[in-house]
Amino acid sequence: MKYILGKDRKQTSLFPISLEDSIDTDNSVRAIDQFVNQLDLAELGFRLDHIENGPPAYHPSLLLKLYIYGYMNRVRSSRQLEKECRRNIEVMWLLESLAPDHNTISNFRKDNPKAIKKVFFATVQIARNFGLIGATLIAGDSTKFRAQNSKKNNLNQKKIQRHIDYIDNKLEQYNKALDQSETEDEKEEIKKDIDKHQGRRNQYKRLDKQLRESGQSQISTSDPDSRHLIVRNNITEVAYCVQSTVDAKNNIPFDYLVTNKNDSKAMGLMLQRAKTILRTNTFTALYDKGYHTGSEFKTADYLGIETLVAIPGIGRASQAPNPDYNSEHFGYDKEKDTYTCPQGNTLKSNGSTYKGRNYRFKQYKTSKCKNCPVRALCTTSKINGKVLQRSEFQGYIEKNAERVLHNPQAYKKRQAIVEHPYGTMKRQWGFDHIITKKTKQRAAADMGLIFIAYNLKRIWNLLKQSNSSIYQNYIALMVAVRSIMNQLKLIKTRNTKNKILVPV
Fold first, then answer.
1. Do 425 and 144 contact (CB within 8 A), yes or no?
2. What is the pLDDT of residue 334?
3. Are 38 and 112 part of one and the same domain?
């Protein structure tokens, strides 16, 4: 049987193939090269001035190309990227056969989080100029990316006190054993154990002091900015919460923000950033029930942005024995500032406001509750009867509920829009954790490169599907990008006329 035979490794060639001839004209590595070459790296914040003494440095464009290629091909580790420089012919072509070591590669990502974010906004601007962002319907959501910090190295005051109590108990046992020991060797061994545990106790005391002084509820020792967060249901991880905003036209993210907090106070800030980036407030924003917070609705109203946020169910403690008598069935009269119950009784306020956790509210009740025939169906309170609370933000909450009721089809699009990028990043690419360690800024650099890789792939795939001649290959695409970027100077970060304000 005949087989296809390879070439003799020892055979020399009269006409050797160059690196240029080894890379196809439609290879994505050429698009990466063209994309980075069009960026004004100094304007973006990359350091270009280096001291003359010592060995020469690698140009930032070279390291940026390497990272974009690596993330687009699911390689994030600086050590793995170092290997690719010596064995991957595409990387050899991209870096012109240079091979930086892993420390140089790692330091580039660590030292340039803000500049990397501005590169991400360059991809957003490209998408806008090719008409891939509609800016009429957007969706926001968050996801948790596991940090380089174990649960064991995440502590709160109760956990620290539990460790201290355990150590105190062990020290007490060691001291008793020391008193009962008879030989010097035994005493020396016990003293070593006492010193060891005393050192650990001092360490926990320092952490306890640091936690109290910071005013935080928890502290992480490996990655100080990471926090113990609920991932889903009762599953928790020490992680970062990454907020993103995605345009509905082609599921392209145009903003992201790495945080260590939950969603309840995130919507207002993300909408403000969206308004700055899109330079309009005529879009509709979709969010899930985790963002349902009165103060955030007030911010959205101030910005003039229409929101559709899912309405969470009533908590068990606020439920009436019969659901027909839940608070949503009580009608509110804005002029009289009163509520009317399903039985036709009027609930009034005494005019006083009370302070809740994050808001102020009024209370409404009526004396008719005492003799009401359906009291047992309405409330379990045996003294005051039914008491309703009205938040200072209730008007904004009711407006959102009305919008959701009249636009059910629009809200149903939310998941398909905003979950699309997260699904690609976490499931298809396997990027379910932050690879960097120590500080939120470094985590933001890692996430920035993920979003850059996603946007470039998404944009190029969309443009390749177009029938227009400009989209037939990557080189023609990047020539068009160069022309647009040079003409409009899209990467400016100063808030001046005709220049985008880039939120970092």
1. no
2. 84
3. yes
